[in-house]
Predict the 3D structure of the following.
Amino acid sequence: MFESRSQITGQQRERRLPALALSWLLLVAAALAALSCTAAGDGNATVSAATQTAPAATLAPSVTPVPPAPSPTVLAPSPGAAPTRAATATRLPSPTTSPTRPAASPEVSPTVVSPVYACPPTIVPGETPVYRYRVLATYPHDETAFTQGLVYTDGIFYEGTGLYGRSSLRRVEPETGEVLQIYRLPAQYFGEGIALHGRRILQLTWQPVAGQDTAGFVYDRDSFELLNTFFYPTEGWGLTHDGTRFIMSDGTATLHFWDLETLEEIGQVLVHDEIGPVPCLNELEYVQGQVYANVWQTDYVAVIDPATGSVTAWIDLAGLLESAGPAPSADVLNGIAHDVEGERLFVTGKLWPWLFEIELIEPSARIHLPLIGG
Ligand SMILES: [Ca+2]
């Protein structure tokens, strides 16, 4: 039976008010009960309180508290990271691998915290062009030199070596491998990459010493006099420069850019290929607009566009050491130097008895590196 709104008297209205209120409570209870089916966790407390005031709770059996749904495990977004590259590092994971300052330029990676990677990374070139090599010349190299940095300029190699108690900065005659000058680091420092800019040579060390940030040294290019010591919060692996900034690797997939004069960090880029980030970047060399990087414990050199971090090509140097003869004590490939004027490319390794001048053999690929040598 229906009544028109005009037929409802004041008394009727008064009598109906409690009924309307009850109806509203039932509706609210039902609505809250429905909510409890979809809300997880925190929502249940509110629904329970509401049902205690609603006499029609039995009309909404779904109000029965639902056990909180387990929170989904949220994995930090990792752009394209291959599972095989996101494991525990074998080379001393350190909190110092986190960048220390925000991005400062458009080319800077948005990555805030560097993950800890396993070395060596799995490298599957896929569509990325792979260059091979031809040996143009083989030179003697001090097989006790644990090469961590290599630079060529004005007919001379400058070399930084590592290991505790054996780290050094050297001036080396290319043709003979003779060490013309040497500066030995204090035994607590493990020398790493070097770069030469103007009259200065910078040398990184690997890890912090005595509770400080990791130390780097500035030397006079000619006298090897120690001019300055600076510090940075990451590990130190490789170093080069592009004429406008230093480019530094810390063992992760991140390249750091430093101001040439102040050595303040001015940017970063995350190096990646089609699989994901490419970690374990070691010795570096800037070659005609690209950054060449030894990938630690592999025979690969990554050719990196420093503007984007993209690996535009790989250089596969497998078999290079063996091409000159047996070298049972040799460690991994590490050490790239570019003769800018002569357009020559040199590579060597830790404890390698030889240093090689190579030319790259272009793959049948879509992109073309500026070929060096030949
Ligand atoms: Ca180098």
